[in-house]
């Protein structure tokens, strides 16, 4: 398939299931429409059945031993070629991503390039030292450990980062010798087809990656119920994550869950306020707030509250909301009418509770657009403070001091990402120690992450198995301890 025809033919005939190296159709299909102009068809996709899932597991089972036996250098070469192909097609991939979920084209392009960087990271990680040696009590014995793949991994991925999140799951899974059955969110099916084509063209052997498109609810039982499943990696809502974990709890299945967030930022009186306003708005509003790491609560120290609020609103008002294909646009539409309606319900709640709406809180009648919204005067017990909204909505609250801010920041069932803005190194170190969060930022937005370090949260935000960096190697491999003694 030529570089210029990526996905087009497949989307036309709905052959979007990739099983055992072949593109397949299904008797049932579903259509997706662009969130920018909801009458614009973005693709027709195959809706898989449990039989398709069984075939995918069959293919993964057949392919995995040979792939595991492939030298690490060769596996690294496949990932490197995939990165090259993705970079060569960055514009095609970015437009596909925008068509799927409405992300502004500049952000979409950045996400695709981030996916290429993730592929390159794991290509390099494959060539790093593996295993350890230990002293033995027996002088004739060499004692060592070796890393081995788990087997078949099921990856279930969300729609908000349709290239980056699948890549940071699939790349390490296959890098370390596993095969994968991948179920993307329906909204992200077009991006998933393109990414699968990239892996196949890069030389990933038949059956190592199998793509299943369709409704998650109708497929979750067959995805998690197969006895050959060795590991499950999921990013999405807390409710779905809990159900998936329960579905495999009676088996020795490794589970990696990345779930919701209600991420706070604290702005102290000694902070560089203009920079803090820029960082908070980036963290809260870009990608229309549809990031699990998005800033959703800000606690600002009272002596600078008025000044910070004005700087914050000035930054929000500079944002360009509109056509996601326009290079000048900062924020495109919400990912779907359903997601827009979910956030609109929270905006109605803000009106009902008498929140002070500083800016926004309106939905555009066309497409899936929502104005970036900043609220104040919201009670700590409000759902606006307690629940993940997953939209461009920020709650601003004044506090007396650092301790009050920290207590409020920690008062949540979530614990994914948190930020502190200060010029006081002592306060910064206290924050690092005392904040209940898996990701901690000082003078940075909550939504900024890099691929070579562990990613994950605490409390309801995550399972204990981190993603990315060396944590991915730990999750996608198992350790074998070897006692090696020569015969006398």
Automatic annotation (TrEMBL):
All copies of the Aldehyde dehydrogenase domain together span 23-482
Task: Report the InterPro entries cross-referenced here.
Answer: Ald_DH/histidinol_DH, Ald_DH_C, Ald_DH_CS_GLU, Ald_DH_N, Aldehyde_DH_dom
Could you tell me which species this protein originates from? Rhodococcus opacus
Keywords on this record?
Oxidoreductase
Q: Where is the active site?
A: 258
* A molecular-function term among this protein's GO annotations: oxidoreductase activity, acting on the aldehyde or oxo group of donors, NAD or NADP as acceptor
Q: One Pfam family, short name please? A: Aldedh
Recorded family membership: Belongs to the aldehyde dehydrogenase family.
Name listed for the protein in its UniProt record: Aldehyde dehydrogenase family protein
């Amino acid at each position: 398939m030529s570089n210029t025809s990526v996905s087009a033919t497949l989307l036309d005939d709905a052959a979007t299931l990739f099983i055992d190296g072949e593109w397949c159709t299904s008797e049932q299909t579903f259509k997706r429409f662009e969130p920018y102009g909801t009458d614009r068809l973005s693709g027709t996709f195959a809706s898989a059945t449990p039989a398709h899932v069984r075939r995918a597991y069959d293919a993964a089972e057949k392919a995995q031993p040979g792939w595991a036996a492939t030298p690490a250098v060769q596996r690294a070469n496949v990932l490197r070629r995939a990165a090259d192909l993705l970079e060569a097609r960055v514009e095609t991939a970015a437009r596909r991503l925008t068509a799927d979920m409405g992300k502004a084209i500049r952000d979409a392009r950045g996400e695709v390039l981030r996916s290429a960087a993730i592929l390159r990271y794991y290509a390099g990680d494959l060539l790093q030292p593996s295993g350890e040696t230990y002293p033995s009590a027996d002088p004739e014995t060499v004692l060592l450990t070796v890393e081995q793949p788990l087997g078949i991994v099921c990856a279930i991925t969300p729609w908000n980062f349709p290239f980056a999140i699948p890549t940071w799951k699939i790349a390490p899974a296959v890098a370390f010798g596993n095969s994968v059955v991948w179920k993307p969110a329906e909204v992200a099916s077009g991006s998933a087809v393109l990414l699968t084509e990239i892996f196949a063209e890069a030389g990933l052997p038949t059956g190592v990656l199998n793509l299943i498109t369709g409704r998650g609810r109708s497929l979750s039982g067959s995805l998690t119920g197969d006895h050959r499943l060795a590991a499950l990696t999921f990013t999405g809502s807390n409710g779905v994550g809990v159900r998936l974990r329960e579905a495999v709890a009676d088996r020795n299945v490794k589970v990696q869950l990345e779930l919701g967030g209600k991420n706070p930022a604290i702005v102290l009186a000694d902070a560089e306020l203009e920079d803090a306003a820029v960082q908070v708005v980036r963290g809260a509003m870009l990608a229309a707030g549809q990031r699990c790491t998005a800033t959703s609560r800000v606690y600002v120290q009272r002596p600078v509250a008025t000044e910070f609020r004005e700087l914050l609103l000035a930054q929000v008002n500079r944002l360009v909301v509109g056509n996601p294909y326009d290079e000048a646009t900062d924020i495109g539409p919400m990912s779907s009418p359903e997601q827009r309606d979910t956030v609109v319900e929270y905006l109605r709640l803000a009106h009902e509770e008498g929140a002070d709406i500083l800016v926004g809180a309106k939905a555009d009648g066309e497409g899936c657009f929502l104005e970036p919204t900043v609220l104040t005067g919201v009670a700590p017990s409000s759902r606006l403070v307690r629940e993940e909204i997953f939209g461009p909505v920020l709650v601003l609250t004044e506090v007396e001091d650092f301790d009050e801010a920290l207590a409020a920041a920690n008062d949540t069932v979530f614990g994914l990402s948190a930020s502190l803005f200060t010029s006081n190194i002592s306060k910064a170190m206290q924050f690092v120690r005392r904040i209940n969060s898996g990701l901690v930022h000082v003078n940075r937005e909550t939504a900024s992450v890099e691929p070579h370090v562990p990613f994950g949260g605490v409390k309801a935000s995550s399972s204990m198995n981190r993603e990315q960096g060396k944590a991915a190697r730990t999750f996608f491999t198992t350790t074998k301890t070897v006692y090696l003694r020569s015969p006398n």
